[in-house]
Specification:
This protein is an alpha/beta fold and 62 residues long. It contains two helices and three strands. The chain has helices at residues 10-18, 49-53, and strands at 2-3, 29-33, 44-48. Strands 1-2-3 form a three-stranded parallel sheet. Strand 1 (2-3), helix 1 and strand 2 form a beta-alpha-beta unit. The two termini are 14 Å apart.
């Protein structure tokens, strides 16, 4: 799981999501930040950290 304060630029998004680029197994991959816009892509789930902490969203660990 990666955590970032905000994902304001394309470079930051690439850095945070790119950390998973070489992982090919089926384990869940998450990026958390304060951003409210869902930036999930390529099987990597983006979660708002506040929603997660207030249990509005749960992790699906398999």
């Amino acid at each position: 799981m990666k955590k970032a304060y905000l994902l304001p630029t394309e470079a930051t998004i690439q850095r945070e999501f790119g950390a998973y680029s070489k992982i090919t197994d089926a384990s869940p991959k998450y990026v958390m930040s304060l951003d409210k816009i869902d930036m999930s892509h390529d099987g990597i789930v983006h979660l708002n950290i506040i929603d997660f902490l207030l249990r509005r969203k749960d992790l699906m660990l398999t």
